[in-house]
Request: fold
Amino acid sequence: MKNKFVLKKCEFIQSPNYDDRPKNTVVDTIIIHCISLPEGKYDNDNVNLLFLNNLNRTADPSFESLESLKVSSHILIKRTGEIIQYVPFDKRAWHAGKSEYAERENFNDFSIGIELHGSVSDEFTDNQYSSLKNLIGELKQIFPSIKDSNILGHSEIAPKRKSDPGPNFKWEKIR
Ligand SMILES: [Zn+2]
Reply:
């Protein structure tokens, strides 16, 4: 699947966890997340497996709560800065969940989800910031309605449930 909604120079692995955006949706928002499984452990493939519904839920006690959870993100940025895309940008990935901000809700409908391999307790890597910044530039070309003020953290649109990307994320590096 190669079209303008799939990055040319990056690995694309199709997640089954996506569907169509509502008709005539204008994509104008980017949601920044972080994830690691188990939290703070990076030398494994678990996030990739989660997005493909292949995570072994018995591999770690913290995975039990992920039972039957079907999630995805358009993009995962690894600690090395390497980018993997899981869902074409014109499709709806399942990353935000119940969400509300500035009198809008259901952010999955009109946003691009970007997961950084990381934790709210760790620093992100320089390579991750540099890949993220380049990626945001590309996304603004594909979706001119994306403005810096619409680049939000998961914690901003779901403050009661979510704290990612957390206090260590340096917004000034990308805004
Ligand atoms: Zn998140």
